[in-house]
Amino acid sequence: MNQRFTTELLGDHPSLLEIAIEDEDAISSWVRGGEGLIGFGEYKRLVVSGPDRFEKARAWWRNELLNFDIANNVLGSGTGPILFASFSFSENEESVLIIPKVVIGEKKGKSWVSWIGNKPQPIVHRIASVAKPLELQWSGSNGVEWQARVSKAIAEIKNNYLEKVVLARFIDCKVTSPISVARILQNLAAEYPATWIFSNAGLVGATPELLVRLSKSLVTSRILAGTIRKTGNDEKDLALAGSLARSSKDLEEHEYAVRSVADVLAPICTSTNVPETPFVLHLANVMHLATDVTGVLTDSASPADIFELADKLHPSAAVCGTPTALAKKTINDIEGISRGRYAGPIGWIDARGDGELGIALRCGQISEDAKTIRLFAGCGIVNGSEPESEYAESQAKLLPIRSALENH
Questions:
Q1: Which family, according to UniProt (predicted)?
Q2: Is 164 a catalytic residue?
Q3: What is the rounded average pLDDT of the residues 332-340?
């Protein structure tokens, strides 16, 4: 028997990351600037792996949609049944797909609620205060060891056909009482409102990078590569932004990342727009070189959906390197860690195959007992890289999720 799936407009309610639904603790989120989607509970979950994980995810999602009697009184992108997806960086690791029991959405002043089952519309209320100072015990990646790995990568670039490789590192933290996902998300949203605040099966973070957005036939990808840390002094930061925009090392790294995305979109789009020069994206703690690449999908009998786009675009040069195959091999040989879902596609997909998938950056993986969290950061290594500078950059990239935890 099919499950009823209802979507209706929602009246007055707290902001998305302050919402709670009674008896539904699990939180899935994709929120930026107060708009987006937040899911509660789990109706169904699927874990997939392998080189065909995107196809497995599509097949499962399409099959699940057949089991819904959908009553969507709102319509539009992000309404109706929603899949929260978080894919692994490597094909050999696990990706997690979640269909929540309840989803709250907000966009351009319109709010809606979707839920599964024959019950009345769920009652939305404000989260009770969850702030609890945590005692934190840090351990993990040694700076000296990681810088040695960076030196190896630079040697590979100089002695091989490798142009760029992204190396990641992690630090671990043990805590005295369970970590509140809601509190972490609220802290991230307060400090980094220009990023996408995400949560999926314990993976929480604030990413500035959009792998792909598909809305009808319009494709958008925001590429970030090239980073400089902010000082907090407006005059100095303006000068640093200028130096970043002129940095040959950072411009080279950025060009590889933009080219990797543009080359994928060109064959499946009737037109693409690739700006000639990047802009400087200002975040709370760092600045990035950024480029928004757009395209219009080819009008064919079976145009690409977001699963296919993610499969084609991942991994981009921004999180892997150039050439892709050689960069992957170098990561496997040198990096020495399991990335899990760090640097993989994360976001949401609707019943039409539209959605938004970012890249899981500035994030941490919370353990099942919520007593430990592993924080990840990575840096793009090119011929002009210096190990000490890359380590400092990685420390800056760890700051958002680390600060959210310390201010818990």
A1: Belongs to the isochorismate synthase family.
A2: yes
A3: 96
